[in-house]
Amino acid sequence: MHIPIPVRLLLIPAAICTLLGLTGCGFEAPAPQRSPAPPTPEPPLSILSATLTVPVTTLAELLNNETEYHIAELKDQPVNCGIGRCRLNLTASRTGPASVIAQDDALGIKVPFTMKAELTSSGLLSFLHAEGDGQGIAIAKSALSISPDLRLHSVTSGSVILGDGHLRLGPIVTNITQLWNDNQARLAPPLWRSVDKRVAALPLRGRVGAFWAKVFTPLHIGKSPVSWLVLRPEQLNISQPRIQDGAVAITLGIAARGRVVVQDTQPANSPTALPRAHVMVGPSDTFSFAVPLLLPYDQAARLALASLSRRPLRFATMTVDFKQLQILPSSKDVVVVAKFCADPRWDWFSWFASCGTVYLRGEPAFDPVGQAIRIKDLHYDIASANLVLNITQALAGRALEQVLQDHLVFHEAKEIDRLKSQISSTLATPRGRDLTISGQVQSFGEPLFTWTTDGFLAQFSAQGKINVAVSL
Description:
Blueprint: H1 5-21, E1 26-28, E2 45-55, H2 56-66, E3 70-80, E4 85-94, E5 99-103, E6 106-121, E7 129-146, E8 152-162, E9 166-169, E10 172-175, H3 176-182, H4 184-200, H5 204-215, E11 219-223, E12 226-238, E13 242-244, E14 247-262, E15 277-279, E16 286-296, H6 297-310, E17 313-315, E18 318-329, E19 334-344, E20 354-367, E21 372-380, H7 387-396, H8 399-407, E22 409-411, H9 413-427, E23 435-444, E24 448-451, E25 455-470
Parallel strand pairs: 1-20, 12-15
Antiparallel strand pairs: 2-14, 3-4, 4-6, 5-6, 6-7, 7-8, 9-10, 11-12, 12-14, 13-14, 16-25, 17-18, 18-19, 19-20, 20-21, 21-22, 23-25, 24-25
Helix pairs in contact: 1-7, 3-4
């Protein structure tokens, strides 16, 4: 309520009398109720894509390490043998390293092997028995695919070239090549299933798991202040294998929320378990992550108090000297705790000064033009009447609230410009070892302003192109 000037003058003697009665005493309004501060906004979700490339030479090494020399075995297999039906026992063993080439979007695999065969006739000629061996090479073509559980699968087909190896079965002399050709529909599938089994045993899941874990490692992107890019993956996307240019290429996509953390030590960011993969529609090289500008409450209070010390508050016949400010968050606003002393100007020795605490409430806001954080609509929060406070308000009207509000303005334009420049320059340089990230910031979004339990938060997004390289 606005009090006319004459009424204010009449209140001056009352104020003096009250201050005389409160000499050496203090006053404090009851603390206001507060509710939890708003939660920190969630950073935007971005898709980071990287291509995991495995040269076919490396694939051949892995395949040879996983492939036993004993590659196929048939027991008591019915076959045509020239004198009717026979039973065949056959063992194929690899005699040298397998070779792998990229061919027509598939793997071309050659496996040299030796074959040992035992042939037994049936029926009345069951006493006839023959043994033989031969050298050969399996020429296979494997089409690859990946399942959501990150297992590599292949569908293999091909042909077998065998050298001459004779089998004498009573009056019948045949060779292993002829026996194989006559019964290829039965004999070849076990060999191709053996190749499929070895391909499925390749450690793809382990390598993708290593990539997933690496993404959680914070990247050091700034020195002054020390800042880190922290990624929190939520989803794994994966493409089907592409076989080209002498390598198997698999595109991995990580749906992650990224934020910049300003602190001296590397932030903790423990990896989560490797999830099931989703089929990737297409690779992405765009990103958007949150860059926070946090003004802690204690720092804001120090800035406001320093401003008040440079321009002390004076009104009517009193001087108000602020001793301490504190800013406390609430869900709809913030509470400003002001500890001050009110002293008549004529009291040179501060004999009649009275000190106390008042609580004010205001709504934080961000000025996008001036790039300043301010507390607006500042007003008293007084749960019970207090004589000294009432007199102070009577003498000052809204002066105390208004003047204090004028000092609760924090200009952040220089800090925002410096932070944007630092983010752009540091991202342009590749960061990391096994997982390297570099990018080109193309734009910054308008700040999304809020306040949290820690301070005033202006969070703006950085958007652009990103390059992720993985070496595992």
